[in-house]
Amino acid sequence: MFWAIVALLVFVVAVGASYQITQSAADAARFPPPGKLVTISPGRRLHIDCRGTGGPTVVLEAGIAASSLSWSRVQPRVAEFTRVCSYDRGGLAWSDPSAPPLTATHMAAQLHALLGAASLPPKYVLVGHSFGAFVVLAFASRFRDQVAGLVLVDPIYPSEWLAMSSEQRFRLRGGVFLSRVGGVLARVGAVRACLSLLAGGSTGLPRTVAKLFGAEASATLDRLVGEVQKLPPEVWPAVRAHWSQPKSFVSMAGHLGSLTKSAAELSTRLRPLGDLPMIVISAESQPLACKAEHKALAALSTHGQHVVAPQTGHWVHLDDATLVVEAIRHVVQAAKNAS
């Protein structure tokens, strides 16, 4: 009986792995990169998608596990008044996997290399959502003379990751562990199968699998599915294809595992930004303490503004794309006036 079970498991894994390989090849044909893959170092390419004309160039930096697709409701509208580029950090969407360390400072250096290799001259208006704010702030601290303005969309901030409770540290370690498990499951086609069922409206098996890892994993799945459904329906299949890949989970584990180091690095590098045009947007759903931290970030610039977006959750750019677009427009115009 024991060996029969082992043989069955081996068979299931082999079939799942074959399914994953076959469907991954089909995905590559169905969803080619909308932009271009740019080599930033030997064997390392990042995907960047630029649209529109004019300057300064706006660069969109996504949240911790998100990609260029998360800006689908914002980028086309910004392209109406200036050049705007979204990109994928290493390991996400169309970009090649990234080597550690996956800290915000390291990613800011990679972004700088990407912009240079893509022949996009400064100055830049940098827009960062959530963890993306760490990356653009790290960029601004290192390459201040190349930055024309900042827009931070419901940003995370260093102190919340440097003074964590034991429960918060446990949850962060759990997130890293679940991301690694997700990478293993993706390699044998299990993630792809669950996402296909979800896309077809069948939630039973995916929710059962999520519950095996605890109530928090199940709640996280529900929350992420809800956020993805705020994207334009035409991009859902590409998002599903990317999150069927092991590299997405490996990258997320690396991001989460380096989060406290990113916060520590940034906390020592944050400096006053002079009169740099800057808007910090808070989701209305955030607690008062978080909004106070956002207001403090805006105060890094003498021209900083803090805005609370009514009736929004953490993904403000999906709940109220117009507000984010207008904030970007305002900073772009202020940067032009200052040049």
Please specify the SSE layout and strand pairing.
Elements: H1 2-30, E1 36-41, E2 44-51, E3 57-61, H2 75-78, E4 84-87, H3 104-117, E5 124-129, H4 132-142, E6 147-153, H5 159-162, H6 166-187, H7 190-199, H8 204-211, H9 215-228, H10 236-242, H11 246-257, H12 259-269, E7 278-283, H13 288-298, E8 304-309, H14 316-319, H15 321-338
Parallel strand pairs: 3-4, 3-5, 5-6, 6-7, 7-8
Antiparallel strand pairs: 1-2, 2-4
Helix pairs in contact: 3-4, 4-12, 6-11, 8-9
So, CATH architecture of the domain at 37-159 and 273-338?
A: 3-Layer(aba) Sandwich
Low-confidence region ranges: none
Helix fraction by DSSP (H/I, runs of at least 4): 40-55%
Radius of gyration: 20 Å
CATH class descriptor name of the domain at 37-159 and 273-338: Alpha Beta
Arrangement of strands in the largest sheet:
1-2-4-3-5-6-7-8
Q: Which H/E pattern describes the elements?
A: HEEEHEHEHEHHHHHHHHEHEHH
Overall geometry:
globular
Beta-sheet strand percentage?
5-15%
User: What separation lies between the terminal Cα atoms?
Assistant: 76 Å
Structural class category: alpha/beta
The H-level CATH homologous superfamily of the domain at 37-159 and 273-338, spelled out, is Alpha/Beta hydrolase fold, catalytic domain
- CATH topology name of the domain at 37-159 and 273-338, in short, is Rossmann fold
**Strand elements, count:** 8
- Total of helices: 15
Describe the structure.
The chain is α/β, with parallel strands linked by helices and 339 residues long. 53% of the residues lie in helices and 14% in strands. The chain has a domain at 37-159 and 273-338: Alpha/Beta hydrolase fold, catalytic domain (Rossmann fold). The protein is globular. The relative contact order is 0.15.
